[in-house]
Amino acid sequence: MGIVVQKYGGSSLADADAIKRVARRIVDVKKSGHDVVVAVSAMGDTTDDLLDLANGVSPLPPAREMDMLLTAGERISMALVAMAISDLGYTARSFTGSQAGVITDSVHGKAKIIDVTPGRITQAIGEGHIVIVAGFQGVSADTKEITTLGRGGTDTTAVALAAALEADVCEIYTDVDGVFTADPRIVPTARKLAGVSYEEMLELAACGSKILHLRCVEYGRRYGIPIHVRSSFSQLQGTWVMSDPGLDGPEEETMEQPIIAGVAHDVSEAKITVVGVPDKVGEAARIFEALADAQINLDMIVQNISAAATSLTDISFTLPRTDGQTAMTALARIQAEVGYDKLLYDDKIGKVSLIGAGMRSHPGITSKFFGALASAGVNIGMISTSEIRISVIVDESSVGDAVRATHTAFDLDADEVEAVVYGGTGR
Ligand code: ASP
Ligand code: MG
Fold first, then answer.
1. Which residue from 174, 236, 229 is spatially nearest to 40, judged by alpha carbons?
2. Which of 13, 285, 338, 399 has the smallest number of CB atoms closer than 10 Å to its CB?
3. Is residue 44 within 6 Å of ligand 1 at its C-beta?
4. Which fold has domain 3-253?
């Protein structure tokens, strides 16, 4: 009997009753003869509440102390889940990330896992215990400080544990039934995907789908861990994220590989335009060097052909809204040197992305996508593509219409509403 690794999100652990329900689910797996290792998130909105509290105390809390504070959320739920399990007559041992051997780099707030040394976990399993691990946290190899993995990081804890323990599967329990063709809050007729490939899931996660932490999918792909995303509020099969869900998906369902996996959207980006850049060698390099020095991750970049009369061009790019101020300051500093005219900032934008591995071999996807946007009266601001994705920037206010029109144009709508959002405040 193998090891089963499970992850429960905050909405599955919202209160005492929810915790008892989760404990029963965990014990059922143990009863069926498996060893169980569980990664838990903080209860309900705890992480947001702790963030609010910190900001109430200090406008700029030190990153080290922020991690100390936030990791407390997962520590609360791990102990409570272990207590609820012991109440059912089974023994559980809870461990912090550091105790569980989750070793990270030293970047507070968005640390990367570099190794997992699960000695205490395997020992506890050997003694017959169920193991509960606090998600979203680790300890830095060089500074020995406590770190966090970034919002939603418990998914990554779970998959990293599954890889280290050579588990057959990692089950991610959440408050929806799986990965949908679009966010059910915007498209009520979104359909649940039976399977999706790692590469499609990576694009979905990078384009705004919040169902899985991006790094958890990267980890799953690197170590070949199938990830089963499902609801803790139902017994339904969820979505299998694996290398080739069309061919080696679980037996019960035949999954024909659709051309399009889904439509994702993201309203967390802003757009900056550098107006009137002299069209000569080295100007773009200088601009992007300044942004790189400010540690800013860019997404889309567009440079226009310069106007013949003036030899001036405009460069636009998108970036996380949270980095908007830093980027504007960094660019203002090099205005004289670059000799551009002015900067424009727009954070009323949204990104809509169409994702599917079948795009590679099917012509006409782009024209259908843009045609759907046109019929919905949505204007396209910027375009970028990868092999299996087309993204457009539109006005923030037209994101909903754009997503719905695209979803319908590609025949993704379900006949009846399938998507149930069981918990969570969506906060
Ligand atoms: N509690 C953390 C968060 O809210 C980590 C997680 O839930 O995965 O982001
Ligand atoms: Mg999550």
1. 174
2. 285
3. no
4. Carbamate kinase (3.40.1160)
